[in-house]
Amino acid sequence: MHIPPLSTLSESYKLLKQTTGFAPTRSQFFETIISHSLPLQVVCPANIKIAIINSRGGSSIDETLTSRRMAILLTSHIKELWAHGDTYTSIPAWRTGDAEFMSWQAIKERRVQLGNSAITAQPMPKADWNDGEFMGESRTAFFTEKVKVNDKTCRVPCETIEELCLIFNNDHSQTKKIPAINKTALNSTRHTIKNRSANIDSEIAKATSIAINPENADSVFSELVKLGDIRYGCLIGSAEDSVKYRDGGEVRIFTKRNLRDRMRRAKEREGALRSAAIGESGVLAKNSYRS
Length: 291
Description:
Blueprint: E1 6-7, H1 9-20, H2 26-35, E2 40-43, E3 50-53, E4 59-61, E5 70-73, H3 75-84, E6 86-89, H4 104-113, E7 130-133, E8 141-143, E9 147-150, E10 154-157, H5 158-170, H6 172-176, H7 183-186, H8 201-210, H9 217-229, E11 235-238, E12 242-247, E13 250-255, H10 256-290
Antiparallel strand pairs: 1-10, 2-5, 2-10, 3-4, 3-8, 6-9, 11-12, 12-13
């Protein structure tokens, strides 16, 4: 059966039914996508621009990458789309011929180099990957505006559908036993930054909102520890320099160092976005003056 390069969610459900004889529910579809680290994309607005971060931490718009039509979703985005029906991303999906483009096979090979299985018919093990969960994303390029994602604009690459066909064909009975969606856990997955701690975003946001100095990691973490002591949200305990939280059926650790790194990355991205916006406004003003 011919699988188009990109399909809508509803088209994907039909293709899977026609190919495997198994019709996954929306929850089963997203559960499988997440557990196997499969990529999804989204249609972008016309003429959206891409900025590139330079070695000095600033950024500028790359005019050769204008009119980019697709963005990529990471696992934190996919979880939020599944649970809430919408999310935002600012990560470009590279096309064949782009300097940073990697085929799906190359991405799987890179995952092996990072110590993770390329056999996506088995769930991907959770680990701190050097390149994040690695969907082929860039660390130096981003859209100058966030792209909203919903079920209508989400697109499923043909490689993802092919992997899903293998998974569902391997064991229908196992797929049918996928547990029901845990709304309580998913409702705490409002992400802002790409990392493994996406499941405690709302708890960190709460700690930030009540911290004496929300810009200071020590102040924010002090409040996060207090929230851990009362088992707020997904938090289940705390120590002096770490909190424990539940991620699905697993218990994970989030440290003060993790928070510092997280806040640093957020500031770097915010600064890069601001630089890109200032640079674009300067170009527009200059062109307006010339005209």
